[in-house]
Amino acid sequence: MDTAAVLTLLQDVAAEVINPRFRALADEQVSEKNPGDLVTVADHESEALITAALNAAYPDAVVLGEEAMAADASLLDAFAAADHGFTVDPVDGTKNFVNGSPDHAVMVSEVVAGEITRGWIWQPQHENAYVAERGAGAWLNGERLNVTTGTGAPFRTARRQWVGRGLGDLGTLELTWACCGVDYPHLIAGDAAALVYSRSMPWDHLPGALILTEAGGAIGRHDGGPLVPQRLEGGIVAAPDKATYDAAVAALPV
């Protein structure tokens, strides 16, 4: 599938099974995987459709879906060992989706030989399509995307326990938009000085990581090392440039 076809897949799936449930979920269509970790019928149905299409187009690739991993944790190991894989986050920001917030997204990334090669973020309520190909730039609704710097925006974290903590001399951490598929685009737009995450699940971060770096930004681990798709533990810092990333890493731990 070419890059445009994968984007169309995400848009079609969202139109079919996600958008009709937005602000219309019945109680029995929402459950918890773990306390506070919500999943909906839209998550399950959209992941199944996206995974089936990717499997049909790439039968030798490992497709790592968030909900499939929740049912079978060994899928993480298979993805980490694969030469070719995809990540699928069928409804990123599920809690936002359940609460009626438009800040949710459908995300896919492709990994080949240990490198993120393509990434897609579709925000169905905002109708924003973010797409990147390694070495070919990042795009928003067909327009070239470049990171915005120097806006004076706050440093943000997705870990609620860290909100309000100081990040050295850089300021006080504020909350992100609680959805990686919204956080990374806001960072690129200059609405955050950097993003600090305590976890690095690949379906959450690989699409945004490629879009960010292809737009001119920087991303890496808390220890200053590179983001490695197959390394599944540890935290991430994403920033509009390398200097800001280095400053944020130096100010950790928070």
From TrEMBL:
InterPro entries recorded: Inositol_monoP_metal-BS, Inositol_monophosphatase-like
Positions bound to Mg(2+): 66, 89, 92, 204
Cofactor(s) needed for function: Mg(2+)
Record-linked PROSITE patterns: IMP_1 (PS00629)
Alphabetic keyword roster: Hydrolase, Magnesium, Metal-binding
Pfam families: Inositol_P (PF00459)
Gene Ontology molecular-function annotations: inositol monophosphate 1-phosphatase activity; metal ion binding
UniProt superkingdom: Bacteria
Stored PANTHER family: INOSITOL MONOPHOSPHATASE (PTHR20854), INOSITOL-1-MONOPHOSPHATASE-RELATED (PTHR20854:SF4)
Name of the featured protein: Fructose-1,6-bisphosphatase/inositol monophosphatase family enzyme
Origin species: Nocardioides aromaticivorans
